[in-house]
Structures are given as C-alpha cells and as structure tokens.
Write a structure and sequence with these properties.
mainly alpha; 2 domains; 73% helix; 0% strand; globular
Length: 232
C-alpha cells in the first residue's frame, strides 16, 4: 500500500491531497478547517488519538480513492478567482439558505418544546442566533471587500492591494475561529446533535441541519484558510 499521508503533513494538505479525508476527520472530531495549519501528527496527539491507526486508515482509503479513478479538482492549481466563484456558489449560497431556514424552524421548536426542554433549547437558540449574526456579517464582508480585492490583485499584482488583503485575511481567520468555537459549543450542548427523548421530527430536522451546516462550513473554511489564502 502506498503511504502518501504521513504525520508531518498539515491537515489542510491532507484534505487537498485526499478530499474524502474530511469525512474521516469529522468522525474523529479533528478540526481540519480552523486547525488546517496544524500537522496531522500534532492534531492527533492533542486529541489523544491513535495516530498509527488513523494514518493507516487514511492511507488505506486514499489508495481506494486512487484505484477507483475518481476525479476531483485540486483547487490549489486553480486561479484564485475560480476558487472564489466556487466558494460563492457552493458554500455562501448554501450557508445563507440554511441560516434563514434553520432560524424559522428553531423558533418553532422553541415554542412547542419550551416547557419540556427549556434549558437546552434556550442555550441552542442563543448560540445559533450568535452564529447567524457572525456568519451573515462575515459573508458580506468577504463578498463586498475581501474577494473583490483578491480578484483585483490577481490581475494587477498591486502591492498596496496585497497589504490590504493580508490585513483582511487576519481578520477573516479570526472570524472563522469565532464561528468554529460557536459550532463546537453547539455540538457540546446538544451531545453531538442528539435530540432529547420524545422530541418531534422538526426538532430532529433542526439538529440535523445545524450538523450539516457545520460540516459544510468546515469545508468552506478549509478552502479559504488552507487554499485561497495560500494563493496570495
């Protein structure tokens, strides 16, 4: 078996080499988006995980992926403007839609299940509200300020624009960390998005959709932190 993935690779590099590794990392609760600059070995050690076992699993699944002749786009080889278009169409649009629809469903279950699950629901409602505000402001700043600057720099190579971009990148990564912290707290409060006994279908739908939003945001943040920002 070819061993391409090793403990010295950064988490972001592993996902670039083998995109489906994101699912394996999700299963072990390894943060490859905000923590994409950490090495695989360092991340697994900090989580107290069996690094030999997981690296073996990653290489085994990677070899299956290569043998299947599956095609994937290595965004590191694309122009920044092409990656930005992909992020907008695939992740920004999805995030906006999910935030809007989850918000409506959240209010519904808060009203219906308030008496039975008051403490958990109030906490989840408050955390999701904070996440919604954080992400909506973040998306607009990227769309109206950061992304246009990156696209302009791609064409002009203007050093003043580059300096502005680098400042925006620092602020953007801080906002990514803040959103990631809220999601981790939501995961903790809900016991990994498990609904209470006796909860209705809508309750489950809300938790499932927050979980799906989390998984999509992990890929979204990885593409920005570990790929797009490294192109600059």
């Amino acid at each position: 078996m070819e061993k391409v993935i090793n403990e010295n690779l950064k988490l972001g590099e592993v996902v670039s080499i083998f995109p489906a590794s994101s699912e394996i990392f999700n299963g072990y609760k390894v943060d490859y988006c905000c923590g994409g600059y950490d090495t695989l070995g360092q991340a697994l050690k900090e989580k107290g995980l069996d690094s030999d076992k997981i690296i073996e699993e990653l290489n085994r699944e990677y070899n299956k992926f290569i043998s299947s002749n599956a095609e994937y786009k290595d965004w590191r080889k694309e122009k920044p403007s092409n990656l930005i278009k992909h992020i907008l169409r695939t992740h920004h649009d999805f995030t906006k839609k999910e935030l809007r629809e989850i918000d409506m469903l959240m209010f519904k279950i808060l009203k219906v299940h308030f008496t039975a699950h008051k403490e958990e629901l109030l906490t989840v409602h408050r955390l999701f509200g904070n996440l919604k505000i954080e992400l909506e402001e973040h998306l607009i700043k990227e769309e109206e300020e950061l992304f246009p600057l990156i696209e302009e720099f791609e064409h002009t190579k203007n050093e003043k624009i580059l300096a502005d971009i680098r400042k925006f990148i620092k602020d953007t990564e801080d906002e990514h960390d803040a959103a990631g912290d809220i999601l981790k707290e939501l995961e903790r409060v809900t016991g990994d998005f498990k609904i209470p006994k006796g909860a209705c279908t809508t309750y489950k739908l809300v938790y499932d959709r927050i979980h799906n939003l989390q998984n999509d945001l992990f890929i979204h943040i990885y593409l920005e932190n570990s790929v797009l920002f490294n192109m600059i």
